[in-house]
Amino acid sequence: MLRKLSVGLFFVLAACGSAKVIQRNQAGGVIELQGDRGKAMEQATQEMAAHCGGPGSWQVIQEGEEVIGQDTFTREDTAQDTKTSRRGRRQSTDTTTTGQTSTRNATAWRIHYQCNSAAGAPPPGGAPPPAPGDQPPPPGY
After folding, report:
1. 129 pLDDT above the threshold of 60
2. Rounded alpha-carbon distances, angstroms, from residue 26 to 38, 113, 123
3. In what order do the strands lie in the sheet with 28-35?
4. pLDDT tens profile 13-40
5. What is the torsion angle, in degrees rounded to the nearest 10, for the CA atoms of residue 82, residue 86, residue 89 and residue 91?
6. Is 0.85 topped by the overall pTM?
7. Please, what's the largest Cα pairwise distance for the chain?
8. Is 57 exposed, middle or buried (0-12, 13-18, 19+ CB in 10 A)?
């Protein structure tokens, strides 16, 4: 019974996926996919559409595995050897410690996207850009 429960829990967890917004600005952003890539991409698509103004208002400009840091693993083994003299009067103990450290690049699957309307969007907190042919008023007007 426990084995069936463990196998079922494994499949449920394996089917989970999520999208985490890493960076976002007016022009687009970066989203990290975690777990099941298909499920995570569904959530990422919703995030991009909400940010950029609806379905089809964004495009992926880069997708793939990126180095996000490093992981360091340290392993230490200690061995002890005790020897007794032939007459049983003396004992000596030798201790040997061996250590090993390894470092690897930690990676994550990330999507860089751009909002299609980013070029025509107004600057943050500013007025919309002038339409072509509009002239600013003369100085002192």
Report:
1. no
2. 26, 11, 8
3. 17-24, 28-35, 91-115, 58-84
4. 446 999 999 999 999 999 999 999 999 9
5. -10
6. no
7. 113
8. middle
